[in-house]
Design goal:
Helix content: 40-55%
Strand order of the largest sheet: 2-1-3-4-5
Radius of gyration: 18 Å
Structural class: alpha/beta
Number of strands: 11
Distance between the termini: 24 Å
Largest sheet: 5 strands, parallel
Number of helices: 8
């Protein structure tokens, strides 16, 4: 999952990035509102973690601009502004959740997981598509009731398809959502991961859609 973290405190931002990477997500850091708005409108993100007190352009303006552009990416506000009026203002501006500083990393991760589930139409922490299931708390993948052993990158591929069960996903999109920005992003390696997943789970679990990419098929 590709997550934009907008935080001008570099130390806190790097701590958040490290915690998200530890959960096999692909976070990137933005440190001011202008950069955040540009990146949020020019790339696809699964979740945006947004501080309000930003230089150049405040976070509330960034959020309102995103919603005005009909960008529906889940947004979790992360802010020291903790009075009721400010929380309500943030939620009314289009935020999906609001977490005040100081905070526990475990809670932020749990809130991000919840937003990822809801964005894919799932309320339960266990996602089910046909005979394939994924427990977002333990990162356990099951096929027809049997646990499947996956590498970290194979898991990221399966998780992305599980969060987008009806979508045809291109190689380029997969690369952007499973690799760090500074990684040597070679879309050809996606075919290797797809092949390995098919061998471990089922040959037709990821259907090839010629010229477009792949679609989850887990009946």
């Amino acid at each position: 999952m590709k997550i934009l973290v907008v935080e001008d405190d570099i130390r806190l931002g790097e701590q958040i990035i490290s915690a998200l990477e530890g959960n096999d997500w692909v976070p990137e850091l933005s440190q001011d509102g202008v950069d955040a708005l540009y990146r949020a409108t020019s790339e696809e993100w699964d979740v945006i973690v947004l501080d309000l007190g930003l230089p150049k352009l405040d976070g509330l303006t960034v959020l309102k601009s995103l919603r005005d552009e009909n960008i529906n990416t889940p947004v979790v506000i992360l802010s020291a502004r903790d009075n009721l009026t400010q929380r309500v203002e943030g939620l009314n501006a289009g935020a999906d959740d609001y977490l005040t500083k100081p905070f526990e990393t475990m809670e932020l991760i749990a809130r991000i997981r919840a937003q990822l589930r809801r964005a894919s139409g799932n309320a339960s922490p266990i996602m089910q598509v046909g005979s394939l299931s994924l427990d977002t708390r333990s990162s356990k993948v099951m096929w027809q009731g049997q646990a499947i052993s996956l590498t970290a990158l194979e898991y990221k591929v399966v998780a992305y398809f599980m969060h987008n069960p009806e979508k045809v996903i291109s190689r380029t999109e997969l690369v952007e959502h499973i690799y760090k920005q500074d990684f040597d992003r070679d879309s050809n390696t996606i075919e290797v991961f797809i092949g390995r997943i098919r061998k471990k789970i089922a040959p037709d679990v990821l259907k090839t859609v010629r010229g477009l990419g792949y679609r989850l098929h887990a009946e």
